[in-house]
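Histidine--tRNA ligase
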Amino acid sequence: MTVRRADLTPARLPRGFADRGAAELKTLREMTERIRETYELWGFEGLETPVFEYTDALGKFLPDQDRPNAGVFSLQDDDEQWMSLRYDLTAPLARFVAENFQRLPKPYRSYRFGPVFRNEKPGPGRFRQFLQFDADIVGAASVAADAEMCMMMADALEAVGVKRGDYVIKVNNRKILDGVMEAIGLGGEENAGRRLTVLRAIDKLDRLGPEGVRALLGRGRKDESGDFTKGAGLDDEAALRVLSILKAKTADNLETARRLFEEFSSTESGQDGARELSAIATLIEQAGYEGRVSIDPSVVRGLEYYTGPVYEAELTFTIEDDDGRPIQFGSVGGGGRYDGLVGRFMAEDTPATGFSIGVSRLLAALTALKGETAPAADGPVVVLALDREHIGRSMAQAAKLREAGIAAEVYLGSSGMKAQMKYADRRRSPCVVIQGSDEREAEIPQVTLKDLVEGAKAAAAIKERSEWTESRPAQVTVPEERLVEEVRAILARHG
């Protein structure tokens, strides 16, 4: 009879967080390694910063500055100083550069990879912890650095398997958007909060469409769950002025930049932004990235610290969901220029630009693109332990395999052979090593190797039990001294 304890803690995963199994981790590792190789080809070096930063180092650039104590997860240390889990990898980079400014080469090219945290309402595809892979150039004021970021983002997507034509890197300029704000009377520090609300509304264009954005520019919008998001409070004329920038988009990058210049000829900020986009368009064409990188005035980026060009990596291919409906993954990364962020820690501003790839979202998109779940990770060779008195010999066999670079483990449970074979199947083992008393006590000690991959194929084709018994599929007995050689042959057979 099973007796249940009254004080058991329920096993439950916190909302907005996810576990990852071996198969996903293997695919993730392979994908991020290709991204890392791309960054290093472009001359970037690795950097790791801690997951916690002092909250005042994040300052006004918290994701939700209009919601006190929200947007980030915070706690007090033993000095009663507030620390917060990083919400991105850019703010920690700014702090690192300021602390080490004198010894770093300028421009400083770095990449970072790791988890970031958002204290936001979780939902489908929206997590409180997720992975980012960033690359940044600090100390380069030229828009050539922004153009390089866009080109490298394109190269990274192709390196992980996204075909040319299945993505686009879209570029805009926050100075264009500043020009819009000036034109509708939202310039000045006193309107910073409303400007941020407007930017976030435009940033949701892909997800909500023009009508959803129009609602957020006005009084606000109620989502499917009934939650209401307060809008920017713009009147109809101002809202239409904001949405008008989307009409400047053409198939030609230089023509789009020219139209934006004309649209905002009355504002100095808008003109500067259009000139910078024109320069980026020229560099893109000269470097051979036209068609992969596109000037697009719909790009906003939600964070306040961007000061110039902003860009997004968007996947353009369409797949079908379980109900046959077409879906598009949209943005899988983005970034921009943030010339004021490092300057929060120093006497003068330091130019900087960079982008971040949303690793988890990109991984999901690649899995969907291939039309299959993430490939299962290969497990280790399992050495069965049929006789506990001789488990040391089993350990020696596993050690010999590991010395040869073959992943191997000894079964350490207490079950019999049938359960051990089931264990090997669950571990996705390519083969098992069996040594009973007959093999061990033979004149020339032997081992039996069972190829579980071939065995599964053969089993699927065998209908009668007698046929199974006679065939003993994918099983071979060899001298123990040939263990490594024979296991290696089995592994080679399966790639």
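thats it. DSSP finds 17 helices and 18 strands in the chain. The chain has a mean pLDDT of 86. bye
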